[in-house]
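FIELD: query
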Amino acid sequence: MKNKHIISFLAIAVLFLITPVTLISAQTIAGPYKSKPGPFQVETIKYDWHDSTRNRDIPVKIYYPKTGNGPFPVIIFSHGLGGSREGYAYLGEHWASYGYVSVHVQHIGSDTAVWKDAEDPKKGMRRAINNPKNAIERPKDISFAIDRMEKLNAEKSPFKGRLDLKNIGVAGHSYGAHTTLLIAGQLIIIRSKEISYADPRVKAAIAMSSPVPVIKTNLEQVYSKIQIPVFHMTGTKDMSKIAGTNAAERRIPFDRIKGVNQYLLTFKDGDHMVFAGIKQTGKMREKDPLFQDLILQSSTAFWDACLKSDLSAKSWLDDDGFEKALDGNGTFEKKK
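FIELD: result
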């Protein structure tokens, strides 16, 4: 009987020691979340891929940890209209420094070629955004990039055996946010027919400055198939001179998606280009450094929560960690 009491006491003691650690691990983050560059040295590599089934080139630039066996989760990034694989470097560098492989895809037909050296750059960009072929090819580029990353993980390459392909995220800005949501499950509806480009390999998504459909009578149906976590980002001055979505409409995807783990960040006085980074805009406005620091913190926390199952990161988002970091510079809404 005495031995039984000793065993019971030891079991309770072990439970007492283990349980608090588990609980605290999801609540210990206070202040900024991974605001500074992470522990991994970042390397980049470029590939000029070709999809023979579509006779289409897909240039990419990949940011990845130079050392470490991983496996590292993979993020596929889709640029906005008129962008390229060289854009959004601040995101790729930061995410890679914290143990992600960030693949920046260039979409031929809606990249820099549509405005560079053109007599009327805006006209070229409008032509590209109104070409339905671009909207269709973009999500196919993303799925093709995932296919190629699977191949690189299996063959001799800097990524052999280093990729966590069970944890894939997709992100994008503006036209790239539209591409991102198509991959997440947003439907294109033509004459009552539902067209989907969803890729089931993707576990989470970040959509910055999402455009919305011109026809808004069937929005519940358009967003009904999105079941994965999505972090939506916008600003109170998020207008585009090319596309027709106004600042108030940017929150429509967040409002219409019924799934849990949906987040909406709205920067106070944030405009459409704040998400692009100085290397793309060519200039830095007064609040850009602050906004971009908050983008890095919150996006990294979201990836950690969704792709690394980090409970502390999820707690920082779900409780008041990020709202404290925002410090009145925006609003943060959640569907837990």
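FIELD: remark
The radius of gyration is 21 Å.
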